[in-house]
Amino acid sequence: xxxxRHLRTLIALRDTGSLVEAAERVxxxxxxxSHQIKDLESRLGMPxxxxxxxxxxxxxxxxxxxxxxxxxxxxxxVAERDLxxxxxxxxxxxxxxxxxxxxxxxxxxxxxxFRNHWPEVEVDIPSGQNFDLLPGLTREALDLVIxxxxxxLPGVHYAPLFRYEGLLAVSKQHALAGRTWVEPDDLAAETxxxxxxxxxxxxxxxxxxxxxxxxxxxVRSAELTVMMMQLVASGRGVCALPNWALTEYLERDYVKALxxxxxxxxxxxxxxxxxxxxxxxxxxDFIRTARDTSFAVLNxxxxxxx
Amino acid sequence: xxxxRHLRTLIALRDTGSLVEAAERVxxxxxxxSHQIKDLESRLGMPxxxxxxxxxxxxxxxxxxxxxxxxxxxxxxVAERDLxxxxxxxxxxxxxxxxxxxxxxxxxxxxxxFRNHWPEVEVDIPSGQNFDLLPGLTREALDLVIxxxxxxLPGVHYAPLFRYEGLLAVSKQHALAGRTWVEPDDLAAETxxxxxxxxxxxxxxxxxxxxxxxxxxxVRSAELTVMMMQLVASGRGVCALPNWALTEYLERDYVKALxxxxxxxxxxxxxxxxxxxxxxxxxxDFIRTARDTSFAVLNxxxxxxx
DNA sequence: GCATGCTATGAATTCTATTCACGATTCGGA
DNA sequence: TCCGAATCGTGAATAGAATTCATAGCATGC
Lengths: 306, 306
Hints:
2 copies of one chain form a homodimer. The first copy, chain A, has 10 helices and 11 strands. Chain A starts with a helix and ends in a 9-residue tail after the last helix. In chain A, the strands form 2 sheets. In chain A, strands 3, 4, 5, 6, 7, 8, 9, 10 and 11 form a 9-stranded mixed sheet that branches. A two-stranded antiparallel sheet of chain A has the order 1-2. Chain A is of the alpha/beta class and about 300 residues long. In chain A, about 40% of the residues lie in helices and about 20% in strands. The first copy, chain A, has 3 domains: about 5-85, Orthogonal Bundle (Arc Repressor Mutant, subunit A), CATH 1.10.10.10; about 95-160 and about 270-295, D-Maltodextrin-Binding Protein, domain 2 (3-Layer(aba) Sandwich), CATH 3.40.190; about 165-265, D-Maltodextrin-Binding Protein, domain 2. Chain A has helices at about 5-15, 20-25, 30-45, 60-85, 105-115, 135-140, 205-210, 225-235, 245-250, 280-295, and strands spanning about 50, 55-60, 90-100, 120-125, 145, 155-170, 190-195, 220, 240, 255-260, 265-275. The interface of A and B includes residues 2, 45, 64 and 67 of A. Chain B binds a DNA duplex (30 and 30 nucleotides) through helix 3.
């Protein structure tokens, strides 16, 4: 009668605050969740939460089930890991690299969490050479590459982690600061600050400016997000960054962020791995853990399909 | 992927030792369980137990899942009880009586267990008057009666608890002791010892001797099971009792027990309650608890349909 | 060697969860 | 106050799963 699926739904609901988003999180439609919960509530003979408020407010019954979920679901995860371990294949190597700047924010918690559960897997993030990383994957120099730029390569599988929105950060005094969103033309007179990587790897260009055939007045680069923020805050330019990289500056009311175009520019972050390693239990677990921690740590991101 | 149903199945499997019986326990067919488990095993990529042995032997993976089940299922029960409590209706009265002798063996653990979880329900087993108990139910003098003799009464619902087999206890030296089962005629020359209740409430008569129009040479009664056993062991008669009432004497090798007829005589024990009280959360819980503890405490009983 | 009891299996079926396509409701802004 | 955007609810249709049915295969004990 009560099933694990219900518990997962409730957790997603609490984390997101709305049926629509919770549905996305568990890869179902909003309608499915509405039915699912309605029917659970009717069997229990009482409501689990109020929908009239944002985020939804849980009743005592709802809270109780959440508690149950928090108890049970982790135990399940542990058991699944133990089973994977019993299946053998618990040894392995996970050398990974990140193609995208400033991913450490969520990668570190993921790696920590993972290390605890798979002591037999040798985890390493060799830093240094910033060459093209994907070939390193086929060469077996690397086992996993975090990238937002999947290119069809034989023997490489891209596991989607999550979707995020590229936002334009501008100073609070900036002329654009009052707008609801910006159009490509708005950037023609601006100084655009970017990471020092190839043009083709910057979504602002590939997905926003290039299609509209617009070029910013000036382009300059900076290594670190903090530096960019300083430049932006002092009005010396604007920059486009993933929404989650901006949250801490937005919270401190340091800069203002605007969607790129009416519908925004969304990209997906992938974990690139070798096809053969795809079914390894600890690899599957790493991907799951990465997704889970991302949602726990980052704001404003959305699930990506499989 | 892994669902609660699987955990319940595994528990049933461990408790019973075979797919056939486990299937009965969870109210499914043997085929369903075979499919269910096969499919779980294939998804996990390893077997959970060996079927070639009786009882089945769990693999490490199977053991791990059993551990999970033991962790999770009780938590679920507690949560369900808490929800029922939140639904209100946690107050109530449960005055019960037993029509069948020697039910205390499993009733006591049930009652204890129940008292802990429903402190607000006043539990009582008024002993004494051995009148017809069912009317007391409609009169609201009683709230629950344990009986093996359900009679259609308006407003009374019979919740089946379990099925048990009536066995004939004979002394180890008895002429019948070597037989695989007994026929009605075999009792024509015997002294039959019974509880001092009405003929119509004794299954040996109603289901075994009467249909075959056989009468025992002599019928005498005894109040307590121990007394009966003493008489039987010393060869002064034979007696028919539920299999579970006999197990302790069989284990001590005190007497011998035989099925009544080739297929045995099976009866069902019911909890008779008022229709209105059927949906009360604590009443539902009591029935469930009674079933569960019966299976845990008693040997050789089988589930009864709903 | 045959009966008995258990498990496996493929196809058919039944049932339940999910989607689809709406309609209803709320909220904030012109 | 009247949109428009977003969210949630609902009934009917659908897809997908779990379950049953009807067997076959395999041991084990007599």
